[in-house]
Amino acid sequence: MFLPWLFGQSLKRETGGRLQRINMKTTLIYLLVLTGACLPVQCGKEVQPGPQPSPQPNASPESTRSHFAGLDDVRLLANGLLQLGQSLRDFVHKTKGQINDIFQKLNIFDRSFYQLSVLASEIKEEEEELKKTAVVLKANNEEIRGISVQINSRVDSIMSEKSSLRNQVDGLEEKLRSLLSGGDRAGEISGLRGVIDGQEQSITKLLKAVKEQNDQLNYQRNKLKSLEEKLTASTLAQDTMERIPQSFNSDMPTLSPYLVSDSSQTSADADLPSDCNDVFNRGEKTSRVYAIRPNGSQPFKVFCDMSADHGATVIQRRKDGSVNFDQTWEKYENGFGDFHGEFWLGLSKIHSLLAQGNSILHMHLEDWKHNKRFMEYTCDLGGPESNYTLGLKLLSGDLSDFMKNRTGLMFSTKDRDNDKNRDPNCARNYTGGWWFNSCGDTNLNGRYFLVRHKGRSDRRRGIHLKPGRKASYWLRFTQLALRPLGESWSSSETGGFLANSR
């Protein structure tokens, strides 16, 4: 901020000095013109002398001397003034050009100063967000520390109980050996010993599980502590921020099925709605989990979004990174996650819903600045024999078609590579199951990154969309839902969608 001001002051001093020299030279010309006003020469021509008065008889020679300069002197002075005027004119033109260059440089520095101010403001906003994240991490660290203390206390208690129990068993064995010398109760003692050994093994397994849990908590606590130190050190420069590591359970449970007894299955299933719009038409207006049964399929549970003037069946939601979407083919086929948080409904269930032929795929998308956009497609999905081949046709939306060229693509996961180009395996390298056309393009099932990544390869593993050759958009929230034909999605919360290409 100081350098542009100092350069401006220097330019002002230089410009002021040149203008002062111009004013001095202009004053000199003005004085010379005034001095020559009485000369008998104008514009380089002679003035013809008029009749001279006869000298007085008693006049002295000094009184009869002419008051006008000589013709040669006048010409010399005129030529000098003309050259001086031309030189001053050239100097003025040259100085004007230099002054214009100076003002152009000042304008460039003003724009650079404004851009630096905007950048400083953005860095300050990101620094505030980073401080808030550090506060949350610190609270989590304290909570984990308390849990770790409780587990350590519990382990110590179990170890003391185990030692006491072992002492009691040893004492009992000694008493039994001293009392029973014969073999008539040997079988009973052997059975008792087996029971005691089984209990000891159970206790040992319990202690091992508790120890592993304690080690995991200590590892997470150390990770949080390390992250907290990194976040504190990077508040002065946003470019040095590190991503928050996410620890997921790879054995994500499948979505809970619709449970119904065999005796009541026939009567109960027959009356189930076919999708969430059918639920809406039956009078249910609350967004929550319902049981449905598309035509000819087994009944299952879905989350119904009733926020519009119809019911929409949600098939995918990402919002906070609480669920790991880097799952196997079996999980993606059957569904996983939490209906009230993040989840994937399952390819087999999505296929049965789209097979009814009365649905439109609605995509609700939101970036990290809370700008919202939507896309809508007519959609069909093949069955398991075709590896759930996708068919799409754009209907409407306020983004470029980032799902074009997806028709005819098969679904791929890290353990079943069905990519268009099978080398490399996009699902394994970029995580998450999807209809991959090429690695690094649109993937709404990638990793959920809470903090901006500096490396391009890391960013491509996150939730993002890439419309054509434009920069990728990094997403905070996604929801894919199937709405009925003939209905429109009444969403007025869309706004400018900013690319978070970093």
What does this 3D model show about the protein?
By secondary structure, the protein is α+β, with helices and mostly antiparallel strands. Helix content is about 45%, strand content about 15%. The protein is built from nine helices and twelve strands. A hairpin with a 7-residue loop joins strand 3 (about 290) and strand 4. The radius of gyration is 44 Å and the shape is elongated. The two termini are about 25 Å apart. About 20% of the residues are buried. The model is unreliable at about 35-50, about 235-250, about 260-265 and about 490-500 (pLDDT under 50).
Summarize the entry for a quick read.
With 502 residues, the protein is an alpha+beta fold. It contains 9 helices and 12 strands.
Secondary structure layout:
Elements: H1 2-35, E1 41-42, E2 45-46, H2 71-179, H3 186-233, H4 265-270, H5 276-281, E3 288-292, E4 300-305, E5 312-318, H6 329-334, E6 336-337, E7 343-344, H7 347-354, E8 359-367, E9 372-381, E10 390-397, H8 426-430, H9 456-459, E11 464-465, E12 473-484
Helix pairs in contact: 1-2, 2-3
| Terminal Cα span | 25 Å
Amount of helix: 40-55%
Can you count the beta strands? 12
- Please outline the major beta sheet: 10 strands, antiparallel
- Which overall shape is indicated by the principal axes computed on the Cα atoms? elongated
- Strand share of the residues? 5-15%
- Class from secondary-structure proportions: alpha+beta
Put simply, the count of helices is 9
Nearest-integer average pLDDT: 77
